[in-house]
Design goal:
Blueprint lengths: L2 E3 L2 E7 L5 E2 L23 E5 L2 E3 H11 L18 E6 L4 E6 L3 E4 L7 E6 L7 E8 L13 H12 L10 E10 L2 E9 L6 E11 L4 E11 L3 H13 L2 E2 L1
Antiparallel strand pairs: 1-5, 2-4, 3-8, 6-7, 7-15, 8-9, 9-10, 10-14, 11-12, 12-13, 13-14
Helix pairs in contact: 1-2
Amino acid sequence: MTSILQFCCVHVRPTLCNFTPSQAEKGPSPLVSLEHHKGKSCSLSSIEEGPGVNRRQLILHTAVAVPAFAVPNALALNDVSEDVRVYTDDENKFKIEIPQGWKVGNGESNGFKSITAFYPTEVSNANVSVAITGLGPDFTRMESFGKVDEFAQTLVSGLDRSWQRPPGVAAKLIDCRSSNGIYYIEYWMQNPGESRRYLYSAIGMASNGWYNRLYTVTGQFVDEETDEYASKVQKVVASFRFI
């Protein structure tokens, strides 16, 4: 099985606590953190460095770092309207469409090359994040991780701890597919006693001219926010493009 040396592996659950608004964001308080966005159950996790990480560990790193999602056909649409604006990252060579009024935050990247989060101004568990990690020479395309079904099953089964006694976090794959070199995965996670969290991800690979990088775009919201945020989050993730 292909392995990556000196790569970081994610073990815990994600949080947006370490994000601060981007300098590109105009607002009255440029130093405000994302703590008010209920970091306890949000998404970008802590990282521990390991001497050698195999393909399965890297998939799990991708998963928790920015959870995943399967894309219904509607999510393949790239609708642009007055309700959205295009965020372009010229340095990292991607663009994504976010709702008007959503904030942009830059993460303290420990083990990541770059982390950017997009979130509504009101207090919410909903958010979308883009995490970028460097890859070793063995990883030249998404199929280096295996087919999308294998990738998705490894990701979700590695997160599921419902079999433990007492039961831990439950995770279940909803759907997955591959399109134009990007893996789309949808699943849900639920900690005992907490609301179910739905996760949507688009995972792709691109080169910066020196080495390949893995882009993991993840949107999430909790069950109670489905009516308000499900469609918005799905469309944001689906709008991700390399430039």
